Amino acid sequence: MSEPEPPRESGSRDLTPPPAPSELLGEALGQAARRAGLDPAAEASTGRVVWHAMGGFRGVLESVLPSLAFLVVYTFWPEPLWLSLVASVGLAAVFTILRFAQRSTPAAALGGLIAAAVAAALALLTGQGEQNFLPGLITNVVYGTAILVSALVGWSIIGLAGGFLMGEGTAWREDRRKRRVYFWLAIAWAALFYARLAVQLPLYFAGDVQVLGAAKLIMGLPLFAPLVAVTWLTVRSLYPRGDSADRA
């Protein structure tokens, strides 16, 4: 007759340590990158990956048209200011409604609508067209600083995203080559955001709305897309073909 099992202690706790904040952040970033089309398991050309990361044709329109509408209307009809703002917010609202109507992911369009509405409110409250660009400038400060600090402290945000995207978590920090590459990729992304600030902040303080609007469009997707391509190709080059699939 077998001996009875000893009674289990009531209220026993799971001794598995909780995931570190870096792991949680890296996993979230990796999942976000995969949703944006940066999936190493998918055999796709770099151009297709970049196009997917921009949201495709609809994503490009959602990113460009509201700002372009504001710029065009403001150039020809600077007064009253609300005409330009209605054109911008109205287009953002149309894109969001279409997303909901087609039951597609509305996050990007909804975020664009909220940003456009906040920017329009600032411009209306102050009566200054350049205030329409203030949220975008603040976003560049936040993103650029966060990425730069992450690189300087040895926890590159690009590395966290790339590590979980490629299936190795934070193990890349033990590899000197990967750590160096992720450091410089983070520096490149921070430089993009700070370059926007270097060009656009003087225009903002000068109140040159038309040139500021044009600069925002030129330094938007036309700079974002090549850097996504460089980042994608560089990260893929760090891992042998099929290596990430073995880790997944």
Automatic annotation (TrEMBL):
List, alphabetically, the InterPro entries matched: UCP010219
Per the record's keyword annotation, is Transmembrane included, yes or no? yes
Q: Which UniProt keywords apply?
A: Membrane, Transmembrane, Transmembrane helix
> Where in the sequence does UniProt note compositional bias of the Basic and acidic residues kind?
1-12
Q: Report the transmembrane regions from the record.
A: 57-76, 82-100, 107-125, 137-160, 181-205, 217-239
Record region (Disordered): 1-23
Pfam families from the xrefs?
A: DUF3159 (PF11361)
> Is Zinc-finger among this UniProt entry's keywords?
no
**Protein name per Swiss-Prot or TrEMBL:** Uncharacterized protein
Traced from the root, the source organism's taxonomic lineage reads: Bacteria, Bacillati, Actinomycetota, Actinomycetes, Micrococcales
